Amino acid sequence: MEEIQSQSDLYRSSSSCASSPTSRVPSSHFFYVRKPGSLRQPISFEDSPEWDDPDARMEYEAGGVGGDSINDAAATPISPSLSKINSGSMASPHVPEGAGGSAVRKIAGASIAWRDLTVTMTGKRKYSDKVVKSSNGYAFPGTMTVIMGPAKSGKSTLLRALAGRLPPSAKMYGEVFVNGSKSHMPYGSYGYVERETELIGSLTVREFLYYSALLQLPGFLFQKRGVVEDAIQAMSLSDYANKLIGGHCYMKGLRSGERRRVSIARELVMRPHILFIDEPLYHLDSVSALLMMVTLKKLASMGCTLVFTIYQSSTEVFGLFDRICLLSNGNTLFFGETLACLQHFSNAGFPCPIMQSPSDHFLRAINTDFDRIIAMCKKWQDDNGDFSAVNMDTAVAIRTLEATYKSSEDAASVETMIFKLTEREGTQLKSKGKAGAATRVAVLTWRSLLVMSREWKYYWLRLILYMILTLCIGTLYSGLGHSLSSVATRVSAVFVFVSFASLLGIAGIPSLLKEIKIYGSEASNQHSGAFVFLLGQFLGSIPFLFLMSISSSLVFYFMVGLRDDFSLLMYFVLNFFMCLLVNEGLMLFIACLWRDVYWTTLTLISLHVIMMLSAGHFRIRNALPKPVWTYPLAYISFHTYSIEGLLENEYLGEVFAVGEVRSISGYEAIRGDYQISPDTSSKWRNMLVLLAMAFGYRLIVYVLLRFGLNKNVSARLLLCHRKNNSSR
């Protein structure tokens, strides 16, 4: 205790500009306290903007969701620490009604409370497996509860635990109550927004939200349009509703602030009772951050319960919070009203200086990374002596704050509030229903068609590259004729066409990786599934792959001068189309396995080179070494079946004259250059094998997505990456 007291005295004496809210600075120069009865209004600051509308705060109805326990809890007096501060200052500002556009419908919120919540994850912490330790807290409808702390303090883990989205490796102990009940939150009753959400850049904001509503909600189309417009109005996106999210060609898309609001609006189409947001201010500047929080405050005033994490905020943003849960290394250092947290730090001996943001002061006191800065700053001197602002030992500060909070009236009031919220059960949250599987497949197919038609870089550019490649091969092998001497050259032309066209398909890897990321984002919120995603992606890709196959096949077929027969031409087109389908499935499989552009590209190039070598062109298949090159490489290479089918289509039934008397069949003519079957139905068997391989690769992808087997490979890659960075 002597060490703690000496550190507190040192910090208090060294901070010449520091001032206690209760003794040194008049309230007119510090943070203004809510007036009695204004529990759900934001804390105001001297330089906060003055809002115009005085009627924006949320009124709790007696029969609202949550039962009487919520209403009784909402009417409870403010935090005990707040009652000690002079509250005779100006009234708190109200969030403007016009902040979110025109009026939208109210949302029935729900209360959430957690008691003795502990989360353990093996290998997450260096010295302990406990990521969150005995956390207590609650959140009311119509309020914003923020979980704040430095990096790796357990903020996101606590948020995931409350939302029931912990990974399988994590174990949760304690209790989470929703409207006083321990029941699990059903589908549609809550929304969860990840820190980084994948958006479809080739869709407009309205299109993106509309397709999201079609995937999530049952019912009629016109009802979903109304929900989409409500979400657009609630997140202040009316000016961007018809703008492409990611831009097009040389047009700029939405900025990070608008994109973040679009990701939140996607969850609002379900009209959730509780909305969890992981870092809503992630990668936002000060203006975008303030606009985001004002918009969220407006959303809370509609009745929604907001719980989100935050790392740091400005003074204006801090004034909009209702309650704060302060974490450090998984320990709860404070939970309660935001202004009471300032009083808590002052009581512990760490008052907030006048010109410093509260969140900066909090993180400065509890972030152990500052110890390295302290050690570095002790070697230097400024004009006035030591760097007085960094003399505080964070480990001592954390222990002091934790001990002060556990013995304070604030901790006792939190336990009392949790008891009131859980002593009797309120209204049970009900599932809002899901869209049917057939509806989801149709929506994903149509959305894929629309996206592919606008993705000029990955689809139309691929078509251009295919045409350029085909023209190059066609001019290189043009004018071969139909003599016996042209057989070997014609085999080379077919081999080069199939092999190089398949290799060129790797240009579509970025698009496939983006589709997988979008699926992961939608599947995490139960908006999509592995089967509907794969079926929709497969059906949506068919028109574009067929367009590539028919355009390339026609150019190659007539420039090289293959047999002039319509049925043979159609088989050539279908065979190459199946080849592209198999190649697309293989790329999807490798992309799903690695989830990384570099490793996916490297793996596919290696596989294509191996399949080219074993396709039977460089050395006839009968002469290939049996152990590896014949079994299994030659039989799992789709190049082999495609090339064999095309050559059987060209040469079976053909007759070549040898001199004036003798003639040989096409099978005998090609036998020395490539191994094919003399059976005329063999080419259709090769077609069936290609079709089976196209579905087989997608079946493997389904298993990976459905059972999460690909996460092991991705986790190993991430672990290796972290080890390399740490070794550096």
UniProtKB/TrEMBL annotation:
Residues 1-28 are annotated as: Disordered. Residues 112-354 form the ABC transporter domain. InterPro entries: AAA+_ATPase, ABC2_TM, ABC_transporter-like_ATP-bd, P-loop_NTPase, Plant_ABCG. GO terms for molecular function: ABC-type transporter activity; ATP binding; ATP hydrolysis activity. It is found in: Membrane. It is a multi-pass membrane protein. It comes from the Eukaryota. Its main location: membrane. Signal peptide: none annotated. CDD domains: ABCG_EPDR. This is ABC transporter domain-containing protein. It comes from Brassica carinata (Ethiopian mustard).
